[in-house]
Amino acid sequence: MRGAESNRFVLTHENQYFIVTWPPSTKALLGPLSLALQTGETHQSRRKLLAQAFLPRALSGYIAAMEDITQRYLKSWEEQRSLTWYPELRNYTFDIACKLLVGFDAGSQTRLGHLFEVWCEGLFSLPLNFPWTRFGRALKARDLMLKELKSIIRDRQQSTDPGNDALGLLIQARDEAGDRLTLEELKDQILLLLFAGHETLTSAIASFCLLMAQHPQIFERVRQEQQQFLWDAPLTLEQLKQMSYLEQVLKEVLRLIPPVGGGFREVLQTCEHNGFCIPSGWNVLYQIGPTHKDEAVYPQPDLFDPDRFNPERTASLEEQKYGYVPFGGGIRECIGKEFARLEMKLFAVHLARHYEWKLLPQDLEMVTIPTPRPGDGLKVEFLPLQKTS
How confident is residue 104, by pLDDT bands cut at 50, 70 and 90? Predict the structure, then answer.
């Protein structure tokens, strides 16, 4: 299924005609209590609890730690000068996810970080459970990660101060009936949040870095917009909201190279759409990438043009609400959407203010599974911005 009309049909008939499903390997590795697999009332009640970690008040509290980690990585890349950026960006987003979700530093360099990479590699693999397969190694990594997460969660639950990161907020969160997330639920949900705050976000940030190197005139406009703001003041949500051109650029990045290709649904009951019968028991894949290339909505869809999202030109896009779905839509829209947008924007601001980079000779063909990334890992020369007098 592709296009705004088809997306609307799939995403607004959740639990009526369609129910979420995933490939067998993904189901097994996310775990039965993961929000991604929950349905109906359980999904709705758990989603409300998890959403408390992504409210504006919580996001504001994350900015200082995000900035600290960002500046540390930028300094390291400046010292390296020439680097393969994609693996570094994976470490960067995982460090932020670990700090803000479970409260520990330099997560990418820990045992949990190494296990997490093995786990990610198996998410979309053949579900053959042998010690030498990606899936088999990923299942073992999941068991070891859950043991580590159990220990972290137990310590927090017994502490007088559970903390103000996502884990601390989730430990304290209660639903309308006064119930809390159980230890088993917390383990699966934190694993999902680490994945969501890392894999797809790395892809989006890498795509931004690639496209800015390929379109320097657009990045120059991003830089010019930054001249309106005080650079020595800490960033705030309010200030980030005022960066309208950067917002357009990031929207266009997510349109042209969406981190997620689509979403799977199982057909609960036979239905009809555009004259086609969709039988009960079939699987449906709603497609994000082809939807974002619909020429009726996006003229010259392969052109990188942030002005598509200029407020003066977006009236027609508003009518096509389900024609722009980088975060999905309906009741299963990405719960960490605002966290991802915050991290992308903050990262882009620091790059625009202080750095420039050039692509080195390499293969830029995109590898798309599990998320899009340049084939050779995005090799760049990374330099501090030369100040003009």
Answer: confident
| CB-CB contact of 88 with 380 (8 Å) | no
Distance CA 143, CA 128 (A): 16
Mean pLDDT (whole number) for 305-318: 78
User: How many structural domains is the chain composed of?
Assistant: 1
Share of the chain above pLDDT 90, in %: 70
Instruction: Judge whether 235 and 70 are in contact, CB under 8 Å.
Output: no
Q: What count of Cα atoms within 13 Å lies in the side-chain half-sphere of residue 373?
A: 22
User: Does any domain span residue 121?
Assistant: yes
The pTM (predicted TM-score) of the whole model is 0.93
Q: Which two tokens stand for residue 64?
A: 């200082």
3-state secondary structure of 315: helix
Read off the pLDDT band of 273 (50, 70, 90): very high
Residue 267 in any domain: the answer is yes
Position 159 scores a pLDDT of 87
Residue type at position 321? K
Q: Report d(CA 321, CA 329) in Å as an integer.
A: 9
H or E stretch covering 148: helix 134-158
Q: How far is CA 369 from the centre of its chain?
A: 15
Which tokens belong to 186? 């917390």
Cis bond upstream, residue 370 (ω within 30): yes
Long-range own/partner contacts, residues 81-84 (CB < 8 A, 24 or more apart): 81/381, 81/382, 81/383, 82/360, 82/379, 82/380, 82/381, 82/382, 83/379, 83/380, 83/382, 84/376, 84/377, 84/378, 84/379
Tokens 């309308």, residue located:
176
User: Given a cut of 90, is residue 227 above it in pLDDT?
Assistant: yes
**Strands 366-367, 373-374: parallel, antiparallel or unpaired by DSSP?**
antiparallel
The reply to whether 372 falls in a domain is: yes
Residues 23-35: tens digit of each pLDDT? 999 999 999 889 9
Cβ(345)–Cβ(243) under 8 Å? Answer: yes
Q: What is the CA radius of gyration of the chain?
A: 21
Structural domain containing residue 76: 4-384
Instruction: Specify if 389 maps to a domain.
Output: no
What is the CATH number for 267?
Answer: 1.10.630.10
Instruction: Give the phi and the psi of residue 303 in degrees, each rounded to 5.
Output: -85, 135
Encode 236-270 in three state secondary structure.
CHHHHHCCHHHHHHHHHHHHHCCCCCEEEEEECCC
